[in-house]
Amino acid sequence: MKRILAVTLPLLASMALVLLLGASLWSIAGSQTPVNLPELLAGKMNESGVNHPVTAVLLNFRSYDTLLEIAVLVIAGITGISMARTASLEDPELRTSDSLLYALQRWFIPLMLLLAGYLLWAGADRPGGAFQAGAVLAGCGVLMRLGGIPLGFLRPGLLLRVGLGLGFAVFLLVAVLSAMAGEAFLAYPPGMTKPLIITIETVLTFSIAMVLLALFVSAPVNDAGAPGEDDS
Amino acid sequence: MITAWLMAGLLFTPLAWAVLCLLLDFSRGRLVSCLGITVQVLVSLGLWVAVAREGGFLYGLGGWEAPLGIELRVDGLAVTFILLTAIVAGACGLHASVYLAPDNAWYRYFWPLFWFLWAGLNGVWLGGDLFNLYVGLELLSLSAVGLVALGGGINALRASLRYLLAALLGSMAYLLGVALMYGQFGTLSIAGIASLLPETQALVGPGMAMALMLSGLALKTALFPLHGWLPPAHGIAKSPVSALLSALVVKASFYIAARLWLEFGHELGSTAVAQLIGGLGGAAVIWGSWLACRQSQLKQVVAYSSVAQIGYLFLLFPLTFAVSDTASLQAQQGMTLQVVSHALAKAAMFLAAGNLILATGSHQVAGLAGVSHFLPFSLFSFGLAGVSLMGMPPSGGFAAKWMLLQASLASGQWWWIVVLVAGSLLSAAYVFRIYQASFVAKTGVDDFYHPPGSLEVIPLLLALMSLGLALVAEPLLSVMALSLETGGAP
Predict the structure, then answer these.
(1) Which residue from B112, B132, B142 is facing A76, i.e. has the nearest CB?
(2) Residue B150 Ramachandran class (φ > 0 left, ψ -120 to 50 alpha, else beta)
(3) Which residues of chain B from 230 to 249 reach within 8 Å of chain A, CB to CB?
(4) Are the C-beta atoms of B199 and B267 separated by less than 8 Å?
(5) What letter does residue A126 receive in the DSSP assignment?
(6) Exposure check for chain B: N or C terminus, fewer CB within 10 A?
(7) What pTM, to 2 d.p., does this model score?
(8) Membrane spanning segments where (chain B) (predicted)?
(9) Given B60, B187, B209, which is nearest A37 (Cβ)?
């Protein structure tokens, strides 16, 4: 009886939620939105410095959101490495030394690096950008790591922390410097928009890849435990 | 112009300090952070004075105005909470700089997470955009989860993972609501949606969105019966972290829920919903206090007391729905005072509890036996904070409950008075229980560790502030009431 209830109740609740969501979506689809944001965006595109609306929103119109999102990624990276045992980052048992994988890598890695570069560049006028390029770059790193190539910079030292914070720091610096130049915060000075956005995107790609890679490499548990409050 | 610089200092100092501290170790991070705390307190005070003088204003980031860009809303309530954050987070940071052992390699990550947490809090208080608030909440939740897990063993990891899952579920529900709102109105600005709502015919979509957002936020605020994640997480974290979480982090999600209710509640709420939320708040007060009386561990008592005190905040919902303007204003003032006084009192309580645990080396309430004789100082701070939680005059807790009481009477909802009285009696019971344990004479020898004086002074100052809050309630409430309409925007 209890088991049946444990299955039926969540099922009924989810079905009710889906029905309600469906009803509200139906109602929303039937009405015109009073504010037409895409049109407003299209009108301001020539001031944005890039040609793709998504990149324009992410790095110009709502750049504050993006800045904070990068901060969230950095936090995830910090939390990940803060819980890693130092030794496990260099654990040789976790590496494979498969000769086929190694041979394949010599073909794949350059291609993947090229793809990451392309995605970064494509962000200006078609889908792409720092997040996608960073993900590909991180995938590249995962492959290298699994293939037994030592990635020394992933040791939890200063270099790793600089890498994690670099993209965020450059973004923040641009925001602050733009204010000193007399514009509002996060407002790019006229004429500088495109080079600044490209600089930010490039360092962001690098840092996003670092965060993802650091999360992959760091082991989740430290069983050493700090003395003090948690031994209850 | 000066206000724009203050704003920028407020938002970007914590972020810059986070990056800076990421590169340093714990001891150097401590030096840098003390400087940062000073800057933040001064900037927050400056902004508070500026708003008190000239009224609130809107600040478009990147030079773009809503709905295309993100607008921050700097009004009386926001600056009050910013100042509160500066005081409480500053105190917790200073306490942590002495409390945490500098030779522990993990604590190097404390300062970056601490500053990101602060940035998230400031972002939430100022947010005037639904999606921006979501990002602020994420910043806050993830750094809070990181802080709970920091340097802890398997138990801390378990509690923080539970916290993470609850927080993520809450965020997802909120985000779904935001998406529905955007689908209906085509804008994310709260003020924009509020001005469009009265003309909207089809309220099914926005109503569903409101329900999703409020349930997500209730989960993140640990409203009864969704409070299960809070006591383990707040109980196991290091004491300065527990203080930050209980005093400030849970208030952020409540603040968003309150803002949404006050802006959209007239059109999207109903008496049934308002009474339901108030009822859950009332149940939280009773149930949380009752469980606090029954805990055997000191920090669990304080954590369950947070569940109870959060319950009072949710009385805002029924007390502002379909009532007279005076009753609604009283309820809002009561809510603000409750947030401020609980933040000060609970931070003091957790920091004092941390000192007591440090002194006795035991997490149990029973382990406090004999401590009153040799360590009266931390126990005194704990008791002063308790006075505010019980709601005895002239504490901030008293002023808050008095306002809520008047609002209940003015709106004819007498049943909330039962909750207020029962909650106060039960909180007196759990505070006295701690005292009873500490006055048990053990042996005549002082074998307790004596924490450094700075650790004892910080909770005492916070407790005194919470105690004297009612004396400065008048100027505080007059600034809080400064909305955008009354002040001239620059």
Answers:
(1) B142
(2) beta
(3) 236, 238-239
(4) no
(5) S
(6) N
(7) 0.91
(8) 6-24, 31-51, 77-102, 109-127, 133-151, 163-183, 203-229, 241-262, 268-290, 302-323, 343-362, 374-393, 413-432, 453-473
(9) B187
ipTM associated with this complex:
0.88
- CA proximity to B138, closest of A65, A57, A155: A65
| CA–CA dist B94, B71 (Å, integer) | 32
Tell me the residue type at B183.
G
B388 touches chain A (CB under 8 A): no
B89 in Cβ contact with B118 (< 8 Å): yes
Binding-face residues of A in 202-221 toward B, CB within 8 A: 220-221
Ordered by start, the domain boundaries in chain B are 295-490
> Which residues are B58's β-sheet partners?
B73
Residue B368 CA, chain-centre distance (Å), reads: 28
The answer to whether residue A28 neighbours chain B at the CB level (below 8 Å) is yes
A38, two tokens:
């895409």
| Contact: A68, B123; criterion CB under 8 Å | yes
d(CA A62, CA A55): 10
Please report, for residues A68, A213, B400, B473, the alpha-carbon distance to residue B477 in angstroms, rounded to integers and kept in the order given: 31, 49, 11, 6
Q: Is B209 on the interface with A (CB under 8 A)?
A: yes
Per-residue pLDDT of chain B (490 residues; tens, 9 = 90+): 677 778 878 888 899 999 998 888 888 888 898 999 999 999 999 998 888 888 888 887 777 777 788 888 888 889 999 999 999 999 999 999 888 877 777 788 889 999 999 999 999 999 889 999 999 999 999 999 999 988 667 788 888 889 999 999 999 999 999 999 988 888 888 888 888 888 877 778 888 899 999 999 999 999 888 888 888 888 888 889 999 999 999 999 999 999 999 888 888 888 888 999 999 999 999 999 999 988 888 888 999 999 999 999 999 999 888 888 888 888 888 888 899 999 999 999 999 988 888 888 778 887 777 777 777 788 888 888 888 888 887 788 888 888 888 888 888 888 888 988 898 899 888 888 888 888 777 666 667 777 887 888 888 888 888 888 888 888 888 887 776 544 333 3
What stretches of B222-297 show up as alpha helix (H) in DSSP? 230-236, 239-244, 250-268, 271-294
Q: How is residue B237 annotated by DSSP?
A: S
Q: What is the end-to-end Cα distance of chain B in Å, rounded? A: 9
Question: Is B205 within 8 Å of A28 (Cβ atoms)?
Answer: yes
d(CA B306, CA B289): 9
How far apart (Å, rounded) are the C-alpha atoms in residues B125 and B79?
8
